[in-house]
Write a structure and sequence with these properties.
3-stranded mixed sheet, alpha/beta, single chain, CBS-domain, 7 strands, 4-stranded mixed sheet
Amino acid sequence: MKKIGECSTHLPYTIGRQTEIEKAREMMHEHECHHLPVLEGGKLVGMISSTDLANLTSGQAIVVDEIMTDEPLVVDPDTSVKEVVEAMLKNSYGSAIVSAKEGSTWAIFTSIDAMKLLHEVLP
């Protein structure tokens, strides 16, 4: 069975918690992504997604910290893909952070990564 660390996106783009949401929109558009881990001092403090931004009007002067998910799903890289997908479904999350182990980088597993895996097994 595949481990989540084998099929995740390593070193994803990140954003700071005090960054204005317009910058988050620009980054997601520029990097063609839908999730940005939120860091403060190099430490993970949350997650912001395109869904979080969808109901906001352009030009609102608020920062990422005000709308981010402050308890993202964090999993060990040796966790099975099935376990992670089950947790994502149970919590209605579109992504999970894959924690770093010694000698490896941290990563993100998204619903798009899950679709890629599904595509591999379909005839």
